Structure formats: C-alpha cells, structure tokens
Amino acid sequence: MEMEHRADILRIFFALWPDSIVRRALSSWQGKLEGMGRAMRPGNLHVTLVFLGNVEASRLEALQLAASEIEASRFDLCLDEVRYWQHNRIWHAAPREVPEALEDLVSELQLGLERHGFDFDRREHKPHVTLLRNARMSDAPAVDPLFWHVRDFAMVQGGMTDYRVLARFPLV
Ligand code: 2AM
To answer: In CATH, which of 3.30.110.70, 3.40.50.720, 3.90.1140.10, 3.40.190.10 is domain 3-170?
Structure first.
C-alpha cells in the first residue's frame, strides 16, 4: 500500500554569511550588550538579503538554479553601528552607509526569484545583523568599524535553533 507523503516545507532565506573573523567580531559586540536580551548564537549571525519563508523541498533545486543565475559584484560592507529597534525589540549591527552593490544584489535576487515564480517578503530591505532578540533599550555601545569583504551569498534553511547554509553563490 502506498504511503501518503506530506510535502516537506522548509523555511528559507538568502543571506550574507560571515566568515569566522567577522563572526568573532560580531560576537564580541554581543558581549558588549550582555544582559540586555537573548543573544543569537554566533553560528547563526547573518545579514538577510531576501526572506522567502515556506518553500516546498521539491522546489529547492529550482530555487538554487534561480540564485545561481544572479550576476552581481563583490563589495565591502562596513558595519559601524550597533542600534536598537523598538518595533521588534532587537539589537542589531548595521552599516551607516549601505553600499550600492548590496542594494543591487538584493534587487537582482528579487528579480531572479520573481522570474522563477518564487514569492518573498517585499518589505523595504534594511540590511542588518540581529545580535540580540527580546531585548531592552540602553545606550548603544561604541564599536570599531568592521570591514566585511563580501565575496558570496548563501541560501539558508532556518531551524528551531540552528540555521543551515544549503548553498553558496559567488559574486564576480
Ligand atoms: P530579523 O533578524 O530582523 O528578525 C531568519 O528569520 C532571518 O530572516 C532573520 O534575519 C530575519 O530578520 C529575517 N526575516 C526577514 N523577513 C522575515 C519575516 N517576514 N519573518 C521572519 N524573518 C524574517
């Protein structure tokens, strides 16, 4: 007798995924905010580019193909501020100036996903790394600017505790 299968649904987003040096620096910024909220696991720190949410496992290959067609340039991202957002109670790291190449990458990715019939969260993109959730406000700690040489982006699966990089796509 044939078993009935429920399609696997995965929580998917595209992100800039830091190397260990950037990760360590961001984790030390979390240390400056100790006690102010729930720190994200250092291994999960990232900048979301496009958030899709639920994607059927059977469509992952098509999604990966869509992302691999993206042609976008490498860039340097300077994270130089730690800020608090009251509306979602998170402390995050952010660039004072958003590089044009980052905005281009997000637009290209959105266009590519649209072309392949994928839906995603269309709210205005505000690049940031969430450091602490369920957090309360205090004075923002001072930080030394952190230079992140962005050479690729990643397709990521969200989980209960850990995020998993499913694929990486080089920038040219
Ligand atoms: P956040 O850190 O500001 O909450 C995984 O959930 C990642 O996708 C997080 O970085 C989260 O941003 C981001 N994200 C963007 N849009 C989202 C949405 N509609 N729901 C959940 N997470 C979203």
So the answer is: 3.90.1140.10
Which phi and psi (to 5°) does residue 57 adopt? Answer: -55, -35
Taking a C-beta distance cutoff of 8 angstroms, is the pair 1, 20 a contact? no
- Residue-wise pLDDT for 101-134, tens only, equals 999 999 999 999 999 999 999 999 999 999 999 9
Of 13, 45, 91, 126, best ligand 1 pocket probe by most atoms within 8 Å of the beta carbon: 13
Question: Considering only CA atoms, which of 2, 45, 6 is closest in space to residue 24?
Answer: 45
Under DSSP, the state recorded for 153 is E
> So where are the chain's domains?
3-170
Say how far apart CA 112 and CA 40 lie, in whole Å: 30
